[in-house]
Amino acid sequence: MRIGILGAGQLGRMLALAGYPLGHTFSFFDVSEGTPCRDLGSLTIGRFEDEGTLKKFAAQCDVITYEFENVPCSAAHQLAEIVPVYPPPRALEVSQDRLTEKEFLQGLDIGTPRFRPANSEQELRDACSLLGLPCMVKTRRFGYDGKGQRMIEELDSVATTWRDLGGAPLIVEGFVPFSRELSVVAVRSKDGEVLTYPLAQNDHRNGILHRSEMPAPELTPELRRSAQAIATKVLVALDYVGVVALELFHVRGELLANEIAPRVHNSGHSTIDGVITSQFENHIRAITGMPLGSVEPHARAVMFNLIGAIPPLDALSTIPNAKLHLYGKSPRPGRKLGHITLLNPSAQDEARIERTIESGSMS
To answer: Which CATH superfamily groups domain 114-174?
Structure first.
């Protein structure tokens, strides 16, 4: 099958690498030339607003998916009139606006942090007073990896926060005293089968995922069932096809949903090496109508992102069960260049990985 991917970054790269062994071919649509997918299929360069270029791209494809959630909804709808687009454009509409997203989750009786919209400096002040300090303030659109977010701990900083975030529409969330951040990656097939991967525990640095462990430690059957129920509700409500990730807060034995990522997800990268069928392969299986593969883990997997710089590779070669994945991107501060997955690691192996990453750090 000819699969089109909107976006040609590392997620598109890993989707293609998982899909070629299944007999599929790939085309990519992006706004720039220098992408990790440039050697993995035909690359169409254009603007998402260019209807003619989108139509030419669609003519190359039997099905279209996307690797980032800020694809303009208008482009996704236009393409869906020509070829199937999975996940459905509705998933983009829900996830691109944090207020719409939270209202959608609450409409499914899924717990979330308390929240209020704020469209002016005064509304921001009022929301902080109502929810209580500290508050997390986020732009409603285009935020990722910690961008477009500020913590307000005193009302005197409201004016500065409003100005720093550009006067954009905001969502204000009450502070959540979570014990850890978890995520659940799930997949739904065309015929409605839902499978959920083991929960991952995630640690961030400077707003960017640093380490993710799957399965997360100290998981109770109740937590697993709760995560599965949350993911299933979202997938069914959106008539979803493909992989989704939900970021969750673990709060006093319960799970609160923070964000929906309508795509394969950074916290699921360890499934490449640690699970029978990776999130990338199952996404391809779902959107092409193939049976889903097993999501059973065959190892404890701990994934570390490589941010800004690639560490000395000779140091990695001496660490047992270290799996290196590079994305073909040039180094730049804050940029995700690759990841390392450790299978069934000891504490000593994890410490060595941390030291190796720090030796080449440029975060």
So the answer is: ATP-grasp fold, A domain (3.30.1490.20)
Report cis status (omega within 30 of 0) of the bond before 215: yes
- Kindly report, residue by residue over 223-242, the tens digit of the pLDDT: 999 999 999 999 999 999 99
118-138 pLDDT per residue, tens: 999 999 999 999 999 999 999
Q: What CATH superfamily is the domain 180-359?
A: ATP-grasp fold, B domain (3.30.470.20)
- What token pair was written down for 183? 């995520």
186's tokens: 């799930």
N-terminal to C-terminal alpha carbon distance within the chain: 39
| pTM, two decimal places | 0.95
**Segments in 84-171 forming alpha helices (H):** 89-95, 98-107, 121-131, 158-164
* Domain definitions of the chain by residue range: 2-85, 114-174, 180-359
Which CATH number among 1.10.3720.10, 3.40.50.20, 3.10.20.30, 1.20.1250.20 corresponds to the domain 2-85? 3.40.50.20
Q: Which helix (H) or strand (E) holds 178?
A: none
CA–CA distance, 203 with 212 (Å, rounded to integer): 6
β-pairing, 63-66 with 2-6? parallel
* CA torsion angle 73 15 325 186 (round to 10): 80
Give the whole-angstrom CA distance, residue 246 versus residue 95: 11
Q: Calculate helix-pair angle for 279-287, 10-19, nearest 10 degrees.
A: 70
Q: How many CB atoms lie within 10 A of CB 314?
A: 8
CA dist., res. 189 & res. 195, Å (int): 9
Q: What is the 3-state secondary structure of 182-244?
A: EEEEEEECCCCCEEECCCEEEEEECCEEEEEEECCCCCCHHHHHHHHHHHHHHHHHCCCCEEE
